[in-house]
């Protein structure tokens, strides 16, 4: 987590005269992520000498003999070694490439392929129409559970128990955390962190987010594809077991 995020949360608590242990309890609930965004969305301090971390759209580069469904298009290929090290709290490959094929408009279908370094590949025509590809760049971020209730946090529950004004302050504190710029959700491809599901958060099913792909990040429309699984499935690269869910 960025030091600036921690300090911003503590400042929000101080502004409401909350005890610091209450604010610290909420800080522990924040989760890191990595956003993949176009170059013009990079923070100024990251633009100089920025290295692409992914390629969106276009045709995928895959082993020639790999069998894939022809109707699932290429969405993004991630250069794992170009991602910032030590940021995510899920196990992501340290090197090689991750190729994500998904129907991100209305079908809960997709394929993820990890290509270790040195894998021989060819450009594959896995779809009838390929959109022009473009590079994406990595930005570390921090995420916040959208459906968190203060009563679920022991320190907050103890502080506010039986006191309506304290309960109001803690609820206001939660709202303020969601407005911190480094915590506020971005409309970019997101790796790790909390999901931003509107109807069926993956966390409520005992899963963690592997990646979310807003359709607006690649095509400009309004659906979002959530790719999730257990921590064990993700750590063991069992990508064929991950769930693809589309929300519109």
Keywords:
alpha+beta; 6 helices; 25% strand; 10-stranded antiparallel sheet; 248 residues; 12 strands
How would you summarize the topology of this molecule?
Blueprint: H1 3-15, H2 20-27, E1 31-37, H3 44-47, E2 54-56, E3 61-62, E4 74-79, E5 97-102, E6 110-115, E7 122-123, E8 134-143, H4 154-160, H5 164-178, E9 189-191, E10 208-214, E11 224-229, H6 231-235, E12 243-247
Antiparallel strand pairs: 1-8, 1-9, 2-4, 2-8, 3-7, 4-5, 5-6, 9-10, 10-11, 11-12
Give an overview in words.
With 248 residues, the protein is of the alpha+beta class. It has helices at residues 3-15, 20-27, 44-47, 154-160, 164-178, 231-235; strands at residues 31-37, 54-56, 61-62, 74-79, 97-102, 110-115, 122-123, 134-143, 189-191, 208-214, 224-229, 243-247. The strands form 2 sheets. Strands 6-5-4-2-8-1-9-10-11-12 form a 10-stranded antiparallel β-sheet. It has a two-stranded antiparallel sheet with strand order 3-7. A hairpin with a 7-residue loop joins β5 and β6. α1 (3-15) packs antiparallel against α2, α2 runs antiparallel to α4 (154-160) and α4 packs antiparallel against α5. The two termini are 30 Å apart. 35% of the residues are buried. The model has no long low-confidence stretch (mean pLDDT 91).
